[in-house]
Amino acid sequence: MIETGRFLFDRMLGSLCRRMRLLGFDSVIIPESETGRFLINAGRENRLAVTLATRESDRPGKPPLVLGSRELDGQVLELLECFREPPPLQPFTRCLDCNSVLAEIGRDEARGRVPDKITGIFSEFMECPRCRKVFWKGSHYEDMLKEVREIESMLNNRKKGG
Ligand SMILES: [Zn+2]
Questions:
Q1: How far is the CA of 20 from the centre of ligand 1 (A)?
Q2: Rounded Cα–Cα distance for residues 161 and 82 (Å)
Q3: Quick one: pLDDT band at residue 114, thresholds 50, 70, 90?
């Protein structure tokens, strides 16, 4: 059982890391140069270490969560089911590239940074304070929303099934 929605992923879990960011969880990948300190860093940063490799458990530090599933949706479920309380999903609140919490900006601030036709259509934008990327609820958003809905319904089905 875990209390915190903060994760440190090993380098094989890049897709899972992005998916957890999409759902609003504070998620980082261990830097290449730090892989030997995977569990130590997780402890220091108050994150749950998540890996596919059982051998990680032999290293000093708090034991990691070793995922059994090899496919993305299964891994997401495995993680979410580790929480003592089912965590609220906060989709589209984090930058998928760098994990920073996004800030809302208006159309005027977005102008010139996204194609003109986009500021013509959309009025709400989100900005990453670190990498300065601007996001809006375009077609990519619809795809991601579908993924979020699928995860929510999987979670609900699990709950009903016991
Ligand atoms: Zn960013």
A1: 14
A2: 17
A3: very high
